[in-house]
Amino acid sequence: MAYALEIKNLTKRFGNKTVVDDISFTVDEGEVFGFLGPNGSGKTTTIRTALGILRQDAGEVRLLDGLTASEAMPRVGYLPEERGLLRKEKVSNILRYLGRLRGLSKADALDRGLELLHRVGLYEHRDKKVEGLSRGMTQLVQFVAALIHRPDLIILDEPFAGLDPLNVQLMKEILAGEQTRGATVIFSTHVLSDVEEMSERVALIADSRLILFGDLAEIRRSRGANAVVVEAPSHPGDLPGAQRYAGRGGRVEYRLDDGLTPETILKAYSSSGIVLSRFEQVLPSLNDIFIEEVSNARQHN
Amino acid sequence: MLGNTTDARIIFEEEFARQTRRIGWRIFTVGVPLLMLIAAFIVPLLTDYFSTAGDDEQPRDTIGFIDHSGVTDSLDSIPGLMRLDGLDTGTQALVDGDIKALFVIPDDYIETGRVDWYRTGSGLASEDGTGNAFFSVLRTAVADESLSDELIARILHPATYTLFKVDDFGRPDSSGTISDEIARAAPAFIFAMLLMISIFVGSGSLLQSVSEEKENRMVEMLVTSTSPMSIMLGKILGLGAAGLLQIAIWLAVASVSVPQISDQFSGLASLSLEADLVILLIAFYFAGYFVFAALMASIGAASTSVREASQISAIVMVPAIVPIYVSAIIIPNPDGLLARVLTFFPLTAPTASMMRIAGDTDRLYEVVIGLLVTALAGVFLLWLSARVFRAGLLLYGQRMSLRAVWGALRQSD
User: Fold this and answer.
1) What is the β-pairing status of strands A242-246 and B172-177?
2) Fewest CB atoms within 10 A around its CB: which of A183, A194, B26, B170?
3) What is the pLDDT of residues B192-209, one digit of tens each?
4) Residues of B (204-223) whose Cβ lies below 8 Å from A
5) Confidence class for position B262, pLDDT limits 50, 70, 90
6) Are B198 and A25 in contact (CB under 8 A)?
7) CB proximity B15 to A under 8 Å
8) CB distance B243 to B201 below 8 Å
9) Do B104 and B36 fall within a single domain?
10) CA distances to B38, B228, B299, B362 from B391, in Å
11) Starting at the edge strand that comes first in sequence, how are the strands of the sheet with B116-118 ordered?
12) Architecture of the CATH domain A225-282
């Protein structure tokens, strides 16, 4: 299997503080991968170390099927978490500069930059200085700079933070297009709905450690159903170990405590002689998994 | 060692273009020649206008004198001098503006040398040219009238020195006149001044460029595009080239607009200054710029803000100025202990060596060694600046201290 990113036992310390602690995970080529974690969990340090901006204290990082960070760099597009561009410089000049540094000719860098500016709705601002743009616009320009050389691996650190919903949607569409082109997309976030919408596989880190990694659907299934949705003309009385939340049109959701299975609920309805029009097991949401896993990790520490 | 040269070239081009597009650079580039033009043409015109205003009939520099001693009796009439009979007539001519100054030579002048000087208006007597002009008149007047015109001319200009230098074996060697000596010292001074300007302007921009990119996080996008060495090399050369262009424009304007400077240059050309000395000065210029630019880049990379970087950089600037500041010691004694010590320290070597060349040092080999030391220091500092640039990324948000920079340097490979 070819990996776009392979991280083995990565550890990074700042002084006495371990910021990334023995993390291992892989990202397949061509996938959109969600890198999750609460604020300050070590996501940005992991990304910076993977890209060779910081040096690891232990472990190994390989990109694009076995390359080192410096070897892979011309084929990588990177959007840093901390936004910033040369404030006194024109947007088109910055894109030309960064495009050239990523191997494009002067003309190609400018053409591609303008094409992408058009795509994100900033073409009219091409001759403006960066200091004249809003924060969101600057972020989009940086996003364009990350994609300007059609990279094989796109790494975005908190790409949607600070953007309005329309621009978030636009960015997601462009990234979907990049995936169709064959690029791998890795993005870090703590907004779980973005991950559920875009990624099939995720890695979750909390307090510097990897606590979850794999296929999102698989992870949810492995947790088992922790809720059921029932539609029926009437409902039995209180069921021990299940919290009932009433919805519209005779719809009820039961949240199941540990040890209680969906079958227990089904039996309760059939023993009461109630005919069900709908019975559906609900897998735990990423939100539930996130809260549970992060809380557990913090308790352990 | 030099990183990716293609990337360094791209950064060189972009930095050069960015610097020359800056409004501050353009104003400075145009402003200095503009001041030169004002000083060369407009100021003399204005001075002329104001000093002649309301005085258009009599020549403004006519000097009146009354001689009670008789020392000037043998003199023929001299243009610009007006012999007057009495003090009343003299002071009236002064008030009427017929003469600019009145000198009265008393009858005991030969014994005392005392002369009374009458003036109108304000201004310093020491700045008034009439005093010196009348000095020459008196010198001619007191010369024995039996002396020939040539002898009187020689009394007025008694010597033109021709200099000889005697080596350790007692062999004399002609080293020209005092004017030749001044002309020989001039290029060394010019190069020292150019280096100072380049250090202050060029490496100042470099300091700002590096610390700005760090402050606004642009640096993170750069280091994922190319190596720190390419970034540093491209920046140092790009901003250096912009500085050189600026100086070239100034020199071009100066040579056209300021006759004194053109004269100086033509004087140098006629002296046919030794090519090896000029090459040495140019080599020192570049080595010196490189040393300071790399140091500035390192400071910019290690600092967390532009302001902090500027404060620290001032410390580095001082050694460059010291040799010029003590040039009064170095030039008369170019092989003295102070001159020799400063030649071997990379931060003082460029300007100290230029001052030694100006002082016509006998130990040119020491200057060459100083050049090698400076060049090696330049290469080392370039390498160091790339490491500090790399290490600077580790200092995000941390307060800069030598300990923190050292720690980051050790981590930066």
Assistant:
1) unpaired
2) B170
3) 887 777 777 777 788 878
4) 212-213, 215-218, 220-223
5) very low
6) no
7) no
8) yes
9) no
10) 48, 10, 12, 44
11) B81-83, B63-67, B101-105, B116-118
12) 2-Layer Sandwich (3.30)
Task: State which of B125, B156, B187 marks the end of a domain.
Answer: B156
A21 touches chain B (CB under 8 A): no
Strands A201-206 and A227-231, sheet pairing: unpaired
Q: Which helix (H) or strand (E) is B204 found in, with range?
A: helix B204-215
Burial class (CB in 10 A: 0-12, 13-18, 19+), A31: middle
**A3-83+145-220: what CATH class?**
alpha beta
Rounded CA separation B337/A85 (Å): 50
The ipTM, to two decimals, is: 0.77
The amino acid that residue B407 corresponds to is G
Residue B291: give the domain boundaries.
5-41+179-411
The alpha carbon of residue A55 is apart from the nearest alpha carbon of chain B, in Å, by 7
Give a yes or no: residue B164 inside a domain: no
A136 burial type by CB count under 10 A (0-12 exposed, 13-18 middle, 19+ buried): middle
Residue with tokens 């004087």: B267
Q: Where would I find the beta strands (DSSP E) of A38-171?
A: 58-63, 76-79, 153-157
Residues in B closer than 8 angstroms to A15, CB to CB, are 407
Residue from A127, A129, A72, A133 nearest A103 by CA: A72
Token look-up 């088109």 returns A92
The string of pLDDT tens digits covering residues B219-232 is: 888 888 888 889 88
The chain B residue lying nearest A88, using CA atoms, is B22
- Residues recorded for chain B: 413
